[in-house]
Amino acid sequence: MPRKQTDPKATAGSGEDAAQASRSAEQGVASAGSSKRKRDEDGGHVMVEVSGRELRISKPEKLFFPEPGFTKLDLVAYYMECEQAVVRHLSERPTVLKRWVDGVRGKPFFQKRVPGGAPDWLQTATVTFPSGRHARELVPNDAAHLVWGVNLGVIDWNPWPVRRSDLDHPDELRIDLDPGPGIDFAQVRRVTLVVRDVLEEHGLRGFPKTSGSRGMHVFVRIVPEHGFGEVRRAALALARGVERRIPREATSRWWKEEREGVFIDYNQNARDRTVASAYSVRAVPDARVSCPLEWDEVADVEPAELRIDTVPTRLRERGDPSATIDEHAGSLASLLELAARDEREGLGDAPWPPHFRKQTGEPRRVQPSRARRR
Fold this sequence. Notes:
By secondary structure, the chain is of the alpha+beta class. It has helices at 8-11, 15-31, 72-81, 83-90, 143-151, 185-201, 228-245, 311-318, 333-344, 368-373; strands spanning 37-39, 45-50, 53-58, 63-65, 70-71, 95-99, 109-111, 124-128, 134-138, 154-159, 172-179, 207-210, 216-221, 250-251, 262-264. The radius of gyration is 21 Å and the shape is globular.
């Protein structure tokens, strides 16, 4: 873990401090590989060179994170400096544009289609949604794509768990640990370590990371041989396996009124569901990063220490703990056997997200308390 650094609120808040943060960001852009940087006469934009392309950054001093004083240009500098690690986890993946045009104090909107008039050099993939509709989504394969997205207001990157060479067979199982109200982070850590144990029992290697918010993620590289439905089925079996191990601390129950502890969101593996990528900055007030960890860091990790201003140093000094994830593609066979056993013992499917059509074998999609009143 990086040594706890000075609170950015105290060093980059407003006035001269915020201006210094903006100047430092421009220096970061330069050190990250921008050989050409030009500002127009009224300071309305900056031009940067990245990945062999010249990109225009409008309103570079706009505060995206007002509390610590981080600007749009700070975000550009972060993604340029951390390009290799960021792109490693986005490479060849169709990715939703989640746009925060007014920064974290504004309201975001999801743009699933690359906008008209976008540069013709952007790499894309056409995905199919559960509704049967299609969209051409961005495939961020280098820093130029990242900077182009940030200029539109993208803060966090949300890729599909597939590569564009095979859009129907995920190569990533995603375990999203979502603590309920009042659950402290120590409990999230404990559940994460049990997830590791259950994965290992089924021949899979997990790579943990902070979510950048209140939870944790564990990503597992898998052989792309199953469709979204089977991957979700394996995720549900895993969630139930963890729940059996620590029933008061972890839950697989979809309805919030039934949950106790940390929810293991198996539905994040359904088609068109996405999770913030590794090294993605998150749209939270202190600009935390969804940061990969070594397993021996999980028990003591403090997510508030992993921010836009600390993670680049961590990367330079320690490298990416998930750099070898592609070398560990495993089979879901054992988890699917567990799913089949659960089904034989009466544990059928669990509820799907509300925008999905009713699935074969799915229980009634109605809140339990409402069902009891009928």
